[in-house]
Design brief:
Strand content: under 5%
Largest sheet: none
Order of helices and strands: HHHHH
Number of domains: 1
Oligomer: single chain
Shape: elongated
Distance between the termini: 59 Å
């Protein structure tokens, strides 16, 4: 596993990072075409799968707005749509029972 704790928001091409990633790709037996940007997407996807709050992910990725984060990664939250639908159904059912 590769770890990087000292670099906050690094984009490919800054500080020669694209060349440095080449050695890491070899050590980890990763595709030579792998880019820093691909790792960003992977990290965001893992955070979402682990239940991280979207605002935390936004801050972690350095997005200026939660809208950017949700526009890019919102499709990875499909279970949230069903939770909202289930909650609304339960509320409507309870309201109908209360008025019946």
């Amino acid at each position: 596993m590769l770890a990087c704790t000292d670099i906050a928001y690094v984009h490919e091409g800054e500080l020669g990072i694209s060349e440095d990633l080449g050695g890491a790709r070899e050590v980890a037996h990763l595709d030579p075409k792998l880019r820093i940007h691909d790792l960003r997407h992977t990290a965001a996807s893992i955070l979402i799968a682990q239940g991280a709050h979207p605002k935390v992910i936004q801050e972690h990725l350095g997005h200026s707005s939660i809208v950017i984060t949700m526009d890019r990664y919102g499709h990875l939250y499909p279970e949230d749509r069903s939770k909202v639908t289930d909650a609304l159904d339960a509320a409507f059912t309870a309201a109908r029972k209360a008025t019946a």
